[in-house]
Amino acid sequence: MGKFIIYDGESCIGSAEIAFSMAVTSSLVNPEKCLLLHVGRKGDGAEQGIVPVNRRVGPSYLPLADEGMDALTRLAASGRLNSRNISDYTLPMISNRLDLATGSELSEDMDCAKKEQIYRNIWRAAAGCYERIYVQGADWRTADSMMAEGDVAVAVLRQNRVVLEQFFSRLQGMETALIRPCMIAISHYDAFSSLSVRNIRRMFGSRIPIVGVPYNTGFSNAWNNSEAAAFIQRNLSSSGRSRQNAPFITALKQLVKYSLALSKSAGSASDEKGA
After folding, report:
1. Whose CA is closest to 22, among 228, 256, 212?
2. Residue 59: its pLDDT value, please?
3. Which of 94, 114, 128, 186 is the most buried (most CB within 10 A)?
4. pTM beyond 0.85
C-alpha cells in the first residue's frame, strides 16, 4: 500500500485541490482502488470537489458520524474497524476505483498519542482494502503526526520567496532524522515567474521533485460546482483534452508519476532494511 500525505506548507493553501486531483488522476491512470481521506473539518477540504455545497453540512447531508472520519475514528477507537467494513463508511467517487472519506463534524477530545494510534488503526484497515491512500492534512504538524516510514509527503506551496525559504530551512533541519521521501506541489503556478521550478531548484539546491500546477479556470469552475472529478476524467481522455487544459492535466500526471516513483523507492528501501 502507498500512502501520500498532502498538506498546506508554511501557511499556504491548496492542499484540498491538489489532494483531490492527485487521487482522481491516480485512480484513472493506474486502475487500482484508492481512498481519498480528509483530516479536517467536513466541508472545508477535498470533499468540496464532488459534494454539492448544500449537502456538505446539516441534516441534508448524511447522519452525523455515519460516514467519513467521524465514523472511521469511532470504529478505530473501539477496535471494530477492519478491511471488510471500511468502505461502508466512505462515499464512492469513481466506481471501483476511488472512495472518499470526508472530514469530521464532531470535535476531537483526545491526546496526540491516542490520535496517532487511531490513525494507525485506520491505515491498517485501509491497507487491506485500498492500494493507495491520499490523505489531505491541515499543516506540516498534522501531516508529520500521520507519517510512517515509506510514506510520501507532498507539501503544497506557492511562488513566494519567504515561503520557500522557510520550507527549505525546515526541511534541512529535519534531514538527519528524515525517513520519508517528500516532494513539492506549487499551487497556481506561473511558468513566467522568476521563481520558476528550475530557478527554485537552483536557488535552494533542491533535489526533491517539484511540480508546478498552473491555475486553470475550467477546473476552478468545476470545483465550485462540485464537478471536479468529471472535469479531470474528461480532460484525461484524448477525445476531451483541450489545448487550454493540457498544462494543468500534464502537471497532475507529473504529480502522480513522481509520487508513485517515490513510494516505490521508499518501499524497496523498507524491504531492504527488513531483510
Report:
1. 256
2. 41
3. 186
4. yes
